[in-house]
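Lab notebook, bench 4. Still working through the backlog of constructs that have no structural model yet. Next entry is a single chain of 181 residues. Request: give me the structure tokens for it.
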Amino acid sequence: MLRFAGGDVQAFEELYRRHELRVWRYLQRNLGNRAIADELMQDVWFSVARAARGYRPSARFTTWLLTLAHNRLVDAKRATRPHERLGSVTAGADEPSLIEQLAADHRTEPPERAQSQQHAAAVLAAIAQLPAEQRQAFLLHAEGELTLAEIAQVTSTNFETAKSRLRYARSKLRQLLQEYA
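Model written out:
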């Protein structure tokens, strides 16, 4: 980011390549709506470009970037009426992540592959059932690879709140995915 702030345009391209899917999956899996996730994704990266000159590394770049994404997510949710649902958590074939890797099965036999796909769908459906705060904490950890302290920073909560949200999310996921254990 500091190279980009200094005028190196290729540094921005490198940042984008390195973090694009992580940010997009976080937004899309929280919103469940590709169109809105795409809009927010653009907004996040425009914000990165606008903030380049004033950027000061006070945390990992990933933490700062996901804070921008989280703030856009919160703004989008506030802008929608309470009775409107933004969508459910879904995944596309072009966006593998840690979550899909939980259910990944590289065996070549069709029955095993079908079972693995069902497992991945069950994981995503279970994530969609989490309360918003727990889903955000879980996705920031699983997709964003953030620590508890970083999750607390991104979500503007304290460490213990972030820890509890992640613990409750994991517990609820274990309960929802019991048949796949």
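Notes after review: Residues 83-93, 100-107 have pLDDT under 50 and may be disordered. The longest helix spans residues 9-31. Flag for follow-up if needed.
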